[in-house]
Write a structure and sequence with these properties.
This protein is of the alpha+beta class and 72 residues long. It has helices at 5-13, 47-57, and strands spanning 19-26, 38-44. It has one domain (5-57): RRM (RNA recognition motif) domain (Alpha-Beta Plaits). It has a two-stranded antiparallel ribbon. It is elongated and about 35 Å long. The protein starts with a helix and ends in a 15-residue tail after the last helix.
């Protein structure tokens, strides 16, 4: 997980309103698919800000590059 992800996420979310807290948790273990391993939680000062954030961010595709072994 990118060490700057929390700050970048909070900064992106500030476009929708005041961010009280942003925290990121990484689920590890067998059976946890990579696409669901990172959980991001954002608390906004106002419910309307959270609503705007959900509306916009749910339309985005997030890509986290994977390190894959060489096939050669």
């Amino acid at each position: 997980m990118d060490e700057e992800l929390e700050g970048e996420t909070a900064s992106e979310c500030e476009k929708f309103g005041k961010v009280i807290r942003c925290s990121i948790h990484e689920e590890k273990g067998p059976g946890v698919p990579a696409a669901k391993a990172v959980r991001i939680f954002v608390q906004f000062a106002e419910p309307s800000s959270a609503g705007r954030g959900i509306s916009i961010l749910s339309l985005k595709t997030f890509y986290h590059p994977l390190s894959l072994p060489s096939l050669s």
